[in-house]
Amino acid sequence: MLDWVLLLGGSTGHGAATAKRLAKEGYGIIAFHFDRGDAKKIAMNNIEEVNNLSNGRCHYFNTNAASIETIEKYIPKIKEITNGQPLKLLLHSIAFGTTTNFFGDTPVTPRQMDMTVHVMGNSLLYWTQHLFKNNLLAKGSRVMGLTSEGNYLAMEGYGPVSVAKVAMEAIIRQIGWELGEFGVTANAVQAGITPTRALTKITDNWETWVENTKKRNPMGRTTTPDDIASTISMLLKPEADFINCSIIYCDGGESRSGNI
């Protein structure tokens, strides 16, 4: 029987790498992305590769996955795709939010703050609620989200995203605590600084961040999307059934080696 995974943000960066890795391992891929312009070109190339790797067993939807209307609309479609079989994985890999400071010339607005926390944090809860209600999460299912050390370090322009990621970590912890009795586990994977398109949106100094990271990381390099995909793949194995309500570090020890 084919196991299916659902990726929120599965066309670029960590999400695309995870889709490719899991497609190679025989999983069916259901993914949402919301790409426009140059990003859409990159996304389409990745989607084509995932389609080939999965022998056509993939379904990508280019729409706003953080919208409640989207969740309600696509739950029946997901159920149809899996023939009602529960998902093996729900991964939140959406990297869309406001990157600015709380003060200064362009302080974050209430609307920007609410949007960022919803898209990068709360939306994971709403997806999990709807999937569980529709029996699409069950014993052996995993709920995962991606986080970073920006959650406990003050960083230039990262404030709104930091708040959203902290909210997501709390949501994941609570999901795992409440659904653990049903055999559903929830964990966050903390990546190190990764040279992706999302990093370039956080700061204009991203190249300096990358170089400084190479110097302070015990392994002498930055994290790659493939590192994260490998970690997620391991967490899907039966041996990881008892890992729950946790943050799994995949950064080469970077988070233990001082600030940027």
Descriptive notes:
With 260 residues, this protein is of the alpha/beta class. The chain has a single domain (4-256), classed as 3-Layer(aba) Sandwich (Rossmann fold). 45% of the residues lie in helices and 15% in strands. The chain has 8 helices and 7 strands. The chain has a 7-stranded parallel sheet with strand order 3-2-1-4-5-6-7, with helices on both faces. Helix 3 (68-81) runs parallel beside helix 4. The longest helix has 24 residues, at 110-133. 45% of the residues are buried. The mean pLDDT is 93.
How many structurally independent domains? 1
- Considering DSSP H and I runs of 4 or more, what fraction of the residues is helical? 40-55%
Structural class: alpha/beta
The counted number of beta strands is 7
Task: Return the CATH architecture.
Answer: 3-Layer(aba) Sandwich
In short:
The chain has 260 residues and is of the alpha/beta class. The protein is 45% helix and 15% strand. The chain contains eight helices and seven strands.
How would you summarize the topology of this molecule?
Blueprint: E1 4-8, H1 13-24, E2 28-33, H2 37-53, E3 58-62, H3 68-81, E4 89-92, H4 110-133, E5 142-147, H5 159-179, E6 185-191, H6 197-202, H7 206-216, H8 225-235, E7 246-250
Parallel strand pairs: 1-2, 1-4, 2-3, 4-5, 5-6, 6-7
List the main descriptive attributes of the protein structure presented here:
seven-stranded parallel β-sheet, alpha/beta, 7 strands, 260 residues, Rossmann fold
